[in-house]
């Protein structure tokens, strides 16, 4: 390579480091190969060929909750609104977001109660694909000499109506995942008025540092759920398909004022893809139909 060519390559690299990913990323449209880590396996986006990535929240370059996504074909707008009914909080930490149940220090008896919520504003979509990587950190483990703990929190990932005025006590929510923090089961589901389709999947054990991948694909014909990159269920009920734009809500759910087990839920990234390419209707088992009375 000539000295001139080498100099140009260095200049290009230096420019990339200065302008940052938000400037370079609009052309990024594929599922990154680094999205799978030990314990997860390939992501659903990789396994099923999802394209195009619309946005990616990964919080790796100092972004706050009020900042938009750092890469994707559509990085305009988008911010997270946090709310807590107890001791918990959602904070930017390292390369992700952490839900803290309270003062997350080992062997402490400070209170842990209530529900902590993050809701995405400015990125509504009626159809599409969403995928998230989550990890957990448990405290108050007596086997390590910690103080006794309470009941486990639940981490809940949902699609809800993007317009707060259209929220109807969960009667049209899609539950991408509801999992006890530190547990091995995952519940999925979709609501349509007073009808609910749901299923609880078990056996999802993982090591202390391993992540778990949750995803959902919503087309005009079917909703499909994915765990650790593999489809686990699908629903073709027309009533369950969203009729209005939806958005993402993440929660670490407690039980009112009841003391809970000290915990931390870490979200490494959350991505959205359109339906232009990839497998749109993977075959999978169905869900169980039941009734729903609302969550308000």
UniProtKB/TrEMBL annotation:
Top-level taxon of the source organism: Bacteria
The answer, when asked if Signal is one of the entry's keywords, is yes
Position of the signal peptide: 1-24
Keyword line? Signal
Protein's UniProt name: GH16 domain-containing protein
Q: What organism is the protein native to?
A: Nocardioides bizhenqiangii
């Amino acid at each position: 390579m000539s000295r001139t060519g080498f100099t140009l390559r260095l200049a290009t690299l230096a420019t990339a480091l200065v302008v940052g990913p938000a400037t370079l990323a609009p052309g990024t449209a594929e599922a990154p190969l680094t999205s799978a880590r030990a314990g997860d396996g390939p992501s659903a986006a990789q396994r099923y060929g999802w394209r195009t990535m619309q946005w990616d929240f990964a919080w790796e370059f100092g972004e706050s909750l009020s900042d938009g996504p750092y890469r994707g074909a559509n990085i305009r707008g988008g911010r997270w609104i946090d709310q807590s009914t107890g001791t918990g909080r959602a904070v930017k930490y390292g390369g992700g977001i952490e839900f803290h149940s309270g003062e997350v220090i080992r062997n402490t008896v400070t209170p842990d109660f209530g529900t902590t919520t993050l809701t995405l504003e400015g990125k509504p979509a009626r159809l599409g694909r969403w995928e998230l990587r989550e990890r957990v950190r448990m405290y108050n483990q007596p086997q390590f000499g910690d103080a006794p703990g309470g009941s486990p929190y639940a981490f809940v990932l949902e699609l809800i109506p993007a317009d707060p005025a259209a929220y109807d006590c969960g009667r049209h929510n899609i539950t991408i995942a509801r999992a006890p923090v530190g547990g091995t089961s995952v519940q999925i589901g979709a609501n349509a008025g007073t009808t609910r389709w749901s299923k609880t999947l078990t056996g999802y054990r993982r090591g202390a540092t391993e992540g778990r991948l949750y995803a959902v694909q919503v087309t005009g014909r079917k909703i499909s759920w994915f765990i650790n990159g593999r489809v686990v269920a699908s629903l073709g009920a027309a009533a369950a398909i969203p009729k209005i734009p939806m958005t993402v809500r993440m929660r670490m759910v407690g039980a009112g004022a009841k003391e809970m087990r000290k915990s931390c839920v870490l979200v490494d990234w959350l991505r959205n893809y359109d339906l232009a390419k990839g497998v749109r209707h993977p075959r999978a088992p169905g869900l169980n139909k039941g009734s729903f009375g609302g969550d308000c």
